[in-house]
Amino acid sequence: MIANLQSQVDARWDDVRLFLALYRQRTLASAALSVGLDASTLSRRLVALEESLGSQLFERTREGLLPTEGAELLLPAAEEMESAHGRFSRDASGFERATEGVVRLSVPPGLAESFVAPALVRLRAQHPALRIELDVSIAFVDLTRREADLAVRTRRPLTGDLVSVKIGGRRWLPAMSAARAKKIGVIKHWADVAWVGWGADMASFPAERWLTKHVSEAAVVLRTSHFTAQVNAIASGLGAGLLPPTYARAREFGPLRHAPALAASVSELPVTESWLVGHRALRAVPRVAAVWAFLVEEFARLERAER
Question: What confidence tens digit (pLDDT) does each residue in 13-22 have?
């Protein structure tokens, strides 16, 4: 029977924890209170454990639970497991108590170059022992395979043992250099100005889909999927482009003023979100937790500045 129990508890330490609570408390109510369950749930768990072992562990009496011979036989092994579990938890709690070491961070282009990289001076001031490896790519790293510790993404992950928090979400704006926007004034058609767009590899990107629908191909004078190149081209006065409001504010771009006839297409401007994502197992590690908290606050500051 011990071998049978061992095969079960290898995967479910929680069953051993409940067994010990029942053995020591001798009533369902008291045991349930000690392990944070209700009595009916604990009773069902006990029945399931006994069925999996093929042996009754406790006799149910008016006075409470009486351990059977089988329970007495299993008690020493259960207590050894309890002791080992405690040592495991204590030893694990000693890992990385200090906020130091390398954090691998994946951030899309644009965000990485314009906001995250410049903000790292503030992170270093808070945590001088931290070091950052910044991956700047539009490709999604596989956090479940630990290809990075944290990532900023435009979509919330729905699979994998990941945790996430929304750190931004704004509607994109047609913008130009402030001087050009002032000179051009109000436009009646989007094709009245030159545009900067994305390359063919970004055809499915929401901002590029909007441009494809509302701006003629002849009006697009530059295509590049390198976002910083886009931003610099727009800032130089080459043409208009779609930008998140954070970029428009940071580079002092001017909004592209439009006639009321374009209101319908304005309502279709893309809204993108930013999510900070990490693996659940790393979330509480001090070096990762510090970068997580820092990025949440940095993006919250950007959001407040745009209101």
Answer: 889 989 999 9
